Amino acid sequence: MVVKFVERIFLNTLYSIKIAFVRRTFLFATETEQECSFVRENHFILSIKEYFSKNMNRIDKVFSKKDKILSIYFTAGYPKLENTEEVILALEASGADLIEVGMPFSDSLVDGETIQESNKIALQNGMTLALLFEQIAVLRPKTELPLVFMGYVNQALQYGFEKFCMKCAEVGFDALIIPDIPLVVYQREYKAIIEKYNLYPIFLITPQTSQERIQTLDKESKGFLYAVSSASTTGAKTGINADQEKYFESLKDMKLRNPILIGFGISDQKTFQTACSYSKGAIIGSAFIKNLNPQDLQNSVHSFVKKIKG
Question: Into how many domains does the chain fold?
Fold first, then answer.
């Protein structure tokens, strides 16, 4: 429908200003304002599709082409300060589809023991927001994987919120997950700024989130909706239980605007496949971080992704 809509606008514009194109171009119109005729129609349609593809957010590109999306969260600057690029490129080479880059924070709200420890080590290594932006700027020309910034609002406020968003867009982040921004505050103070820089805001929902609020968060999110599997912090649990599956099924039945990725407690191929049966894919963080071997980083990344995807 988008292509048809663009075609109509394009044709009407040509029609109204009486521009004639020769047959070697995409379109031509007669002097008497008769209906425009397509020349090389397939070429024209392809050019429109290519335009939208080039201008599409990287997250949308992935979701338009794939199911069983594997999104990996890791902490920037862990296990070593300079490992950020190496981890991302190894994930891409191994078959990960999307990456959430965690900016380490000393007072994280939703993270379990594993990610908290990685935050502590990364901060001790010297990771800062300014340094992360430098690392991503150097990395971005080397990969087209979608990159999601995940952090906390205090980090953005200390940097200056608009300056933070501008820098995220400049270095090549595609979206933001900032779980401690209240929805009403986001709508009143930050939504316009995030949209100004073409970043996708991604919100979290839980089994305790009402259907009305889920609908609202779905309208505000872009790219995907992050479904937390249980009301707990991050980290591997003992599988996915019947109550969680009922929750996933209810989300599936809501026919939300955004695709869903399920996170928290996804740690192996079984939980990944179960999550994917109810959603577009799953997010793994703690299990991946536990698996990272500083002495053999690339092989540890490759073996983990292979184990999850099979």
Answer: 2
